Amino acid sequence: MMRIECPCCGLRSEDEFRCGGESHIARPAEPASVDDETWAAYLYLRENPKGVHFERWHHRYGCGQWFNVARDLVSHELVAVYPMGAGKPQLDRGERA
Q1: How far is Cα 65 from Cα 71, in angstroms, rounded to an integer?
Q2: Is 71 exposed, middle or buried (0-12, 13-18, 19+ CB in 10 A)?
């Protein structure tokens, strides 16, 4: 089981959280002018790297806050925890940013 460092509550068990999927996905700026292929890519295509992945997490049984996590999908090591709205951190781990 993973232990996740909530920015508000500190270190907690994985059971208290819910993964919200990949982070840093931008909605198309002009929704009315986007074709079906672009919408499909926005809605369904996600990264699945062997290495560091950037995810959104929700502390559902704690403070209720959303935050971002950089997690190694091979080892499940949490590499970074950072607030929503912040850009991807610069990591020296060979991740695909």
Answers
A1: 18
A2: buried
Nearest to 83 by CA among 47, 51, 56, 53: 56
Amino acid, res. 74 = V
What pairs with residue 18 in β-bridges? 58
Amino acid type, 80 = A
Cα 23 to the center of its chain, rounded Å: 4
pTM of the model: 0.83
- Measured CA to CA, the distance from residue 28 to residue 42 in angstroms comes to 8
Contact 5, 16 (CB under 8 A): no
| Tens digit of each residue's pLDDT (9 = 90 or more) over 29-87 | 998 999 999 999 999 999 889 999 999 999 999 999 999 999 999 998 999 999 999 99
